[in-house]
Amino acid sequence: MKSDKAGPEPSFRSDVTVELVKHSASDTDVLWAARVSTAGEQSLDELTKDPERSKGLLNYLMRDRHGSPFEHNSMTFFVTAPIFVFREFMRHRVGWSYNEESGRYRELQPVFYVPGEDRKLVQRGRPGKYEFVHGTPEQHKTVTEAMEESYRRSYAAYQEMLEAGVAREVARATLPVGLFSSMYATCNARSLMHFLGLRTQHELAKVPSFPQREIEMVGERMEEHWRLLMPLTHAAFNANGRVAP
Ligand SMILES: Cc1cc2nc3c(=O)[nH]c(=O)nc-3n(C[C@H](O)[C@H](O)[C@H](O)COP(=O)(O)OP(=O)(O)OC[C@H]3O[C@@H](n4cnc5c(N)ncnc54)[C@H](O)[C@@H]3O)c2cc1C
């Protein structure tokens, strides 16, 4: 194998990022859609007249799982996270659109995931009934050193193949799922709630889920953006056990 001097130097991250790049999303979008069925065109005027009634309507829609009024809005996020997060993320098929950076058309940059100090490292218990606990400093050291060493070697192999004239789409096979990728993900409040119900752990959840921490980190950041855009819808989601309508 060639020297690992070739190409850019690998860097290591323990965070994910979620940027809200575009949105058209507000609580009134839900109210408008719900009231159009009963009040017709006049419904737009009714929205701000009685805030308590509007809150009550949102709560009713959430509780009784009248989901479609929550679809008339849109949020586009730019996400950077390791590939293993995107593998899980893209299982969410309904109400989501994705575009991810290409490993065929561009040279992949050596940015890799290494768990931070606060990431629980050790799994205890049996499948279906386990918990994660903090690792020792020695375990953190082992994880960091093993991952960084493995990442450096795989990226050096990638660079070696590119230098030898091998196509990017072939050479990338050597890169691990800890490599960072980026994507645009567009959703609406209903599909986001379904995602959050499965990919976050929350004390108010009626149906608990046990997601991998790294996708939960993405979910938490998305939820914070959404909460600011649609505070009443978010409150109703929490008040009704975080079950998507
Ligand atoms: C904690 C956790 C662990 C997981 N572990 C694994 C695992 O080990 N292996 C694995 O492969 N996956 C695993 N998954 C992924 C999981 O099985 C789902 O693929 C993922 O959560 C997306 O959920 P969804 O299908 O409800 O979402 P979406 O694809 O967004 O679908 C939304 C809803 O639409 C309906 N729907 C969508 N497609 C269909 C369809 N074809 N037929 C009927 N109804 C449909 C369903 O009601 C569905 O809930 C895991 C998920 C979680 C949260």
Automatic annotation (TrEMBL):
Positions contributing to dUMP binding: 88-91, 100-104, 172, 199
Domain of life: Bacteria
Cleaved signal peptide residues: none
Pathway: Pyrimidine metabolism; dTTP biosynthesis
CDD domains: ThyX (cd20175)
Keywords, ordered alphabetically: FAD, Flavoprotein, Methyltransferase, NADP, Nucleotide biosynthesis, Transferase
Cofactor(s) the protein needs: FAD
Active site: 199 (involved in ionization of n3 of dump, leading to its activation)
InterPro entries recorded: Thymidylate_synthase_ThyX, Thymidylate_synthase_ThyX_sf
Binding site for FAD: 68, 91-93, 100, 188-190, 194
Gene3D superfamilies, per database record: 3.30.1360.170
EC id: 2.1.1.148
Any GO BP annotation: dTMP biosynthetic process
GO molecular function: flavin adenine dinucleotide binding; NADPH binding; thymidylate synthase (FAD) activity; thymidylate synthase activity
One Pfam family of this chain: Thy1
Note describing how the cofactor binds: Binds 4 FAD per tetramer. Each FAD binding site is formed by three monomers.
Catalytic activity: dUMP + (6R)-5,10-methylene-5,6,7,8-tetrahydrofolate + NADPH + H(+) = dTMP + (6S)-5,6,7,8-tetrahydrofolate + NADP(+)
Task of the protein: Catalyzes the reductive methylation of 2'-deoxyuridine-5'-monophosphate (dUMP) to 2'-deoxythymidine-5'-monophosphate (dTMP) while utilizing 5,10-methylenetetrahydrofolate (mTHF) as the methyl donor, and NADPH and FADH(2) as the reductant.
Subunit: Homotetramer.
Assigned protein family: Belongs to the thymidylate synthase ThyX family.
Classification via HAMAP family: ThyX (MF_01408)
Protein name (database record): Flavin-dependent thymidylate synthase
